[in-house]
Write a sequence for this structure.
């Protein structure tokens, strides 16, 4: 009876995961979808705690289980509630790493359990399937954990890009040795030390795999690691013949892989390109591409910028990462309102990878109450630039770099960009002339119709608001 | 060869589930707009936290005198909970901002 109830709990879990994911892919139902999945997860977890039994044996160690749930729950909630919207990508990566580590730990404990069993009974055959599952779960979980931690460190600036010659070959060697160790372990289950060899190699592989990847490619990697953790969770489902882990894991593995490919497509890059050729790592290539005569940049002062904008009939704001770090989305909305009151038509042009992840900028602007219909996607806005008087760029760099369109030598060549150079004039707000995420110069800044407005995005926008009001 | 065929026959249910889920996963998010990429990634991230069920089983089956298993199992429960709870809360916070405010 109780096991039947547990089956129902798992069925509810699986259905809500599918439903939740479906609803998450539509703006109107997304939030509800998330809650639906969370509800199913709760049912599956509570069901497991109270109804699970193995050979008539119920679970024990309730104090430990509840303590773990309580600690994880409180820390998780606080971290998720407190994190700044700009730090969202690293938070997602961190939580993803936790899931990967969880899968790896399960494999470790189950393997120890199994090797005790083998040692006690002296029979080492008949465990092939179980050991394959344990080894693969450990391998994928550890890679996902190590990779996510590096991604987390990179996004919050603690870890720098690192690449060296022969890196991808070294990576392949690590992976091959880990797989060889796993194969040997499957054939000789008594060589239990190998499980730790696999663990160490998988962790190293995860670190080296993410180390060279940088810049705009990070979200793609996080999404890929996300689907890895999904697959690792599915191996847990094999291990316990547990359908909800299996469906949830495979679902995320498949959806995550597709999402990864969609993100690559949005940047017009192939996945192989992302994983092998790094944007940021290749400093020499970037310098060579920007090696032509740079000319000098033209600066504009605040009051001129205020005048230009308030007498324009159409202004497009291009928000970038500079706006995000300065937390300037609220002032930006303020500026938009003041300009609109003066009769200026103001819209926002959102590059698919503006901010740090696809959709990140929309989230930031939505936080500041910017109306949804003012946000224009790249495809619809690119034709509008030629009828635009002023484009105000707030800390965006690579996504407006014309080199992506007309310089085949540039590392970002082929990436779709916002074609701001078609507008009548361009004002670029940056803190310095430092290149952006991709580490390459931007010709746009040296063009005659571009003027630079240096300073922190928040401060500059505040001053602009004051200036325009006093006009 | 025979082993493999036997394995497929023995596990056909699971294989069917895996194959179907792959198609469902792809089908379900086939037409997601790019603005939802981040929340969707985050939501999927919370869903794979279902691995916590494995952690609970490991923890609940650990012998009370096996401290290594207890500690690793406990860590697994904590990390899995972080993944689930943190993932869903972060996703909700992101999506809350998409709410239409008039």
């Amino acid at each position: 009876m109780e096991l039947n109830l547990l089956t129902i709990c798992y069925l509810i879990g699986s259905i809500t995961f599918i439903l939740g994911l479906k609803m998450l892919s539509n703006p109107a139902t997304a939030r509800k979808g998330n809650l639906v999945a969370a509800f199913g997860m709760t049912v599956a977890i509570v069901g497991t705690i109270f109804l699970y039994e193995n050979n008539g044996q119920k679970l024990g160690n309730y104090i430990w289980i509840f303590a773990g749930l309580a600690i994880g729950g409180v820390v998780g909630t606080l971290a998720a509630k407190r994190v700044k919207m700009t730090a969202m990508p690293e938070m997602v990566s961190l939580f993803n790493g936790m899931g990967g580590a969880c899968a790896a730990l399960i494999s470790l404990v189950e393997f120890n359990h199994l090797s005790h069993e083998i040692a006690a009974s002296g029979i080492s055959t008949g465990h092939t399937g179980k050991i394959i599952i344990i080894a693969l779960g450990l391998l994928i979980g550890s890679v996902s954990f190590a990779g996510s931690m590096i991604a987390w460190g990179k996004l919050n600036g603690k870890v720098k890009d690192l690449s060296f010659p022969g890196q991808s070959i070294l990576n392949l060697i690590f992976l091959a040795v880990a797989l060889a160790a796993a194969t040997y372990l499957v054939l000789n289950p008594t060589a239990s030390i190998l499980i730790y060899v696999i663990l160490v190699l998988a962790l190293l592989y995860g670190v080296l795999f993410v180390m060279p990847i940088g810049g705009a490619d990070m979200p793609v990697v996080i999404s890929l690691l996300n689907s890895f953790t999904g697959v690792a969770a599915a191996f847990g489902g094999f291990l316990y013949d547990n359908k909800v882990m299996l469906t949830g894991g495979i679902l995320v593995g498949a959806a995550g892989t597709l999402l990864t490919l969609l993100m690559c497509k949005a940047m017009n890059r192939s996945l192989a390109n992302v994983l092998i050729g790094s944007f940021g790592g290749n400093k020499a290539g970037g310098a060579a591409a920007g090696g032509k005569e740079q000319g000098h940049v033209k600066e504009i002062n605040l009051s001129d910028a205020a005048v230009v904008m308030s007498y324009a009939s159409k202004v497009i704001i291009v928000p970038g990462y500079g706006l995000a770090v300065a937390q300037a989305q609220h002032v930006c909305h303020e500026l938009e309102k003041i300009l609109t009151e003066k009769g200026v038509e103001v819209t926002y042009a959102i590059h698919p990878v503006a901010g740090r992840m696809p959709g990140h900028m929309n989230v930031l602007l939505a936080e500041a109450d910017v109306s949804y219909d003012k946000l224009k996607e790249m495809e619809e806005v690119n034709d509008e630039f030629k009828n635009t008087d002023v484009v105000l760029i707030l800390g965006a760099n690579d996504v407006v770099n014309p080199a992506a369109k007309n310089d085949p030598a540039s590392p970002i060549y082929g990436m779709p960009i916002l074609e701001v150079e078609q507008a009548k004039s361009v004002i670029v707000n940056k803190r310095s002339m430092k290149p952006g995420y991709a580490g390459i110069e931007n010709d746009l800044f040296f063009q005659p119709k571009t003027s630079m407005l240096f300073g922190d995005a928040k401060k500059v926008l505040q001053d602009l608001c004051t200036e325009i009001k006093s006009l | 060869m025979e082993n493999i065929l036997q394995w497929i026959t023995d596990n056909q249910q699971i294989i069917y589930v895996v194959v179907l889920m792959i198609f469902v996963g792809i089908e379900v998010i086939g037409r997601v707009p790019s603005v939802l990429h981040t929340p969707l990634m985050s939501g999927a991230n919370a869903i794979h936290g279902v691995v916590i069920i494995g952690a609970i089983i490991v923890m609940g089956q650990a012998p009370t005198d096996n401290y290594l298993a207890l500690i690793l199992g406990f860590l697994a429960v904590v990390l899995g909970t972080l993944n689930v709870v943190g993932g869903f809360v972060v996703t909700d916070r992101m999506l809350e901002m998409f709410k239409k405010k008039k």
